[in-house]
Write a structure and sequence with these properties.
By secondary structure, the protein is of the alpha/beta class. 26% of the residues lie in helices and 16% in strands. It contains four helices and five strands. Strands 2-1-3-4-5 form a five-stranded mixed beta sheet, sandwiched between helices. Strand 3, helix 3 and strand 4 form a beta-alpha-beta unit.
């Protein structure tokens, strides 16, 4: 018998972890996840967009529009920042971060400061906005590479049915 040939690639695996992490987000509009991987392909951090620890999800707004303090924007931690803050306590220099959305300028600052050297993203749907232009300028100047994830599959289905194991 030969080994399976339909297994997923490392990029598909780690982006899958980022997308699975996004499912923890309580945001009704946008769910983003991130996964940090070291040079040995070991996961060292994961996160999703949500409120900081100690801030209850039911006590803060989830609105996209309105007065600033009545929206989610001043309160939410983005997935990339959460993955960095949630890392297992190791130096992140030389690590890669997988993220569903290209990181904003604030997350790019944290990525650069933490020593992460590569960003792999699924979507760059906001690339025309100044926030994301600034992000790319900083990443370029800091020598952090970025690329769109290369996947051969369009979806991956997880099952909790014991018969599928």
């Amino acid at each position: 018998m030969k080994k399976r040939t339909d297994y997923i690639t490392w990029d598909e695996y780690f982006m899958g972890v980022a997308l699975l992490s996004a499912k923890r987000s309580k945001d009704p509009n946008t769910q983003v996840g991130a996964c940090i991987v070291n040079t040995k392909n070991k996961i060292v951090g994961a996160g999703y967009n949500g409120l900081p620890t100690g801030c209850h999800d039911d006590e803060f707004p989830w609105n996209k529009q309105g007065e600033f303090l009545d929206t989610k924007y001043p309160y939410i931690c983005h997935a990339e920042l959460n993955a960095i803050l949630n890392n297992i306590g190791m130096d992140l220099h030389g690590c890669k971060i997988y993220t569903a959305l290209f990181p904003c300028n604030e997350c790019s600052k944290a990525i650069i400061q933490s020593g992460i050297t590569e960003v792999i993203y699924l979507s760059d749907k906001y690339e025309g906005s100044d926030v994301f232009k600034a992000s790319k300028i900083m990443l370029d100047k800091a020598g952090v590479t970025y690329r769109k994830v290369d996947v051969k599959i369009s979806s991956l289905i997880l099952s909790y049915n014991e018969g599928d194991v």
